[in-house]
Amino acid sequence: MSRVLVTGASGTVGTQVVKSLGAAGVPFKAAYHSEEKAAAARRGEIDAVRIDYDQPATLVEALQEISALILIGPVSERLVEMESSVIAQAVAAGVERLVKLSVWRASEEGYSFARWHRAGEKRVEASGIPYTFLRPNGFMQNFVTYHGESIRSRSTFTLAAGQSKSSLIDVRDIAEVAVRVLTDPGHEGRAYDLSGPESLSYHQVANSLSVATGRKISYVNVPGDALSGELARQGYPAWLIDALVELQRYENDGLASDVLGSVQQILGRRATTFDRFARDYRSALT
């Protein structure tokens, strides 16, 4: 099997991709954006390297003896520029296969993150490297990453999602799909929108979390026009506030609710349910 480079290895998806590659016995190198994180990974016996998108020499070094790339870009308004740097160096290094983590319905460019990722996809397409695009819906793990403190301390999570529904996906499924499309034939030139197995309202999400934790968890809905002010109070930069508000409007319009069969098609099993996620992550929410 070709040696794989994973960028964004410390992120929500990247961490799970590293685990899935290791479980599958695929030789890989993990790329981190800080030397501290790379050093910690090495102590865990992971072949790790630090990269900086603005320093091409770090990308050249990271791509030595690499045949395949799992490209997980940062959350940044400079996403296209940063990913383009990696793609250019991947071409120069002779990378033969590329899997890019994109976002839900990127092809429709219906919100800022989708427009940025579709522009990145077009750079991959123009590179000539055989590729697969993964376009997942919202992550179940966001309830740990972004709402965990509130769930643990106040038994609530707050969104401006109204009564909308979303087919959230477990990032463990995304990671397993990434490894499978990289190692199995027939996925070149394909783009997969990835959803969970059910479309849930956030009241239903709260019920699942309540059952898993053994105490009442409540969804607190706030008006959509209050979201930007709340994010500003939390210290989010203006560009990210605008992008998140636009994404919330997209979801509230019912455009993130479709349940698709891509995960089952690729993995040969049903995608992970939210109930299963909540049980597995109970210790992080209590």
Helical content class: 40-55%
Kindly report the average pLDDT value. Answer: 96
Biggest sheet statistics: 7 strands, parallel
Morphology call: globular
% residues in beta strands: 15-25%
Q: Show unreliable segments.
A: none
Along the chain, the helix and strand elements come as: EHEHEHEHEHEHHEEHEEHEHHHH
Radius of gyration: 19 Å
Helix tally equals: 13
Widest β-sheet, arrangement of strands: 3-2-1-4-5-6-9
Structural class: alpha/beta
Find the count of extended strands (DSSP E, 2+ residues).
Answer: 11
The termini sit apart by 41 Å
Q: Can you tell me about this structure?
A:
The protein is an alpha/beta fold and 286 residues long. It has helices at 12-24, 35-43, 56-62, 79-93, 112-127, 142-145, 148-154, 171-183, 202-213, 227-233, 238-252, 262-267, 274-280, and strands at 4-6, 28-32, 48-50, 68-71, 97-101, 131-136, 156-159, 165-166, 190-194, 200-201, 218-221. The strands form 3 sheets. It has a 7-stranded parallel beta sheet with strand order 3-2-1-4-5-6-9, with helices on both faces. Strands 7-11 form a two-stranded parallel ribbon. Helix 4 (79-93) links the parallel strand 4 and strand 5. The chain is globular, with a radius of gyration of 19 Å. The chain starts with a strand and ends in a 6-residue tail after the last helix. The mean pLDDT is 96.
